[in-house]
């Protein structure tokens, strides 16, 4: 008998809780919104203001003040603002005082892009384009070249991340130029040459080769003798002499992707009269 009373009591409590929850939710949905509270988060560049967001709410056709919460689609508001070029992402939710809160996280440009067509814009990490006319003034890397649907600017993110993680690389790179996916160039702040990274694979090994080249070869050969330094080939550096077809070929059969031999005597250095067609015979591991 006691067990029966206990089970009946538990069922009644469960029914009460479910009914209360349903009734509370129904009442909450019929309550009216007192307005929208706007907050702009983490806007270090001050490119978006609450007043600007107010005008955008009207432009996008959202009206919350005086509406029942059941008639307000918070997810739709988030998606609409998330598509805007000035927004990284948005959060929309109801507060305890019956206000609809809209938190805007402004876009974070990571790259300035110059296309061969003449178009110029910023992008964030996901590739969202931000027009230059938006008056963003931020110190970000610059990239120019042949971008397409197959190779959009956001494909440069591995290089940008590596630059951010390594201040010495960030200080070295003055600009980035893209010929195609297998020929990505950096223009160093060291004047006189460009560096062909090939693809963006194995960046630690490639920059390791480059810095060793700077340390052990250029001080001997001269900083202005080479026009292009190519790091795209495994185990070697190919440097094209300025106004000449001969090139410096540095190769070490024991050179791996992750480390470089030391000292310089471990690397054979000789001038080659190869033309570009000769270079293409070497295996490109990238």
Describe it.
- This protein has 286 residues and is α/β, with parallel strands linked by helices.
- The chain folds into two domains: 36-106; 111-279, Rossmann fold (3-Layer(aba) Sandwich), CATH 3.40.50.
- Helices cover 30% and strands 26% of the residues.
- The chain is built from eight helices and 14 strands.
- The chain has helices at 2-30, 50-59, 74-82, 157-165, 167-172, 203-216, 218-221, 276-279; strands at residues 36-40, 87-94, 100-106, 111-115, 120-123, 129-131, 142-145, 173-180, 183-188, 194-196, 226-230, 236-241, 247-251, 268-272.
- The strands form two sheets. The protein has an eleven-stranded mixed beta sheet with strand order 6-5-4-7-8-9-10-11-12-13-14.
- A hairpin with a 4-residue loop joins strand 4 and strand 5.
- The radius of gyration is 30 Å and the shape is elongated.
- The termini are far apart.
- Mean pLDDT is 79; it is low at 20-29 and 244-286.
- It comes from Candidatus Limisoma intestinavium.
- This is Cell division protein FtsQ.
- Residues 260-286 are annotated as: Disordered.
